[in-house]
Amino acid sequence: MCLAIPMQITHIAGVNAHCIAKGVERDVSVFLLQDEALQVGDFILIHVGYAIQKISVEEAHSTWELLDQMMLLDDADA
Questions:
Q1: Cβ–Cβ contacts within 10 Å for residue 62, how many?
Q2: How confident is the model at residue 78, as a pLDDT?
Q3: Predicted local confidence at residue 33, as pLDDT
Q4: Is the pLDDT of residue 26 over 80?
Q5: How far apart are CA 17 and CA 10, in angstroms?
Q6: Number of domains in the chain
Q7: Of 2, 10, 34, 44, which is most buried with the most CB atoms under 10 A?
Q8: How far is CA 39 from CA 12, 36, 44, 63, in A?
Q9: Residue 6 has pLDDT above 70, yes or no
């Protein structure tokens, strides 16, 4: 199973972007999205250091809610 994490772009430099999500910051490649008009503030899905899709703010928040629920269930099983 593959998992992509939504992150928000805070800075773009060429084919790299600095992103943040829930206090975690990462530099990622946006090379695969070079045909997209990416801007600071956009949300993208990150998979192993690569942006694979631009998503809406609603999709990002919905995904984070689901991931939070999964973490709660995992903690309850421990």
A1: 13
A2: 66
A3: 97
A4: yes
A5: 7
A6: 1
A7: 44
A8: 8, 9, 10, 21
A9: yes
Q: In the 3-class helix/strand/coil scheme, how is 5-63 assigned residue by residue?
A: EEEEEEEEECCEEEEEECCEEEEEECHHHCCCCCCCCCEEEEECCEEEEEECHHHHHHH
Element (H, E) at 2: none
31-75 pLDDT per residue, tens: 999 999 999 999 999 999 999 999 999 999 999 999 899 888 877
Token code pair at residue 2: 């593959």
Which residues form the domain of 61?
5-77
Question: What are 67's two structure tokens?
Answer: 């991931």
Residue 22 identity (one-letter amino acid): K
pLDDT at 1 over 70: no
Tokens of 75: 């903690």
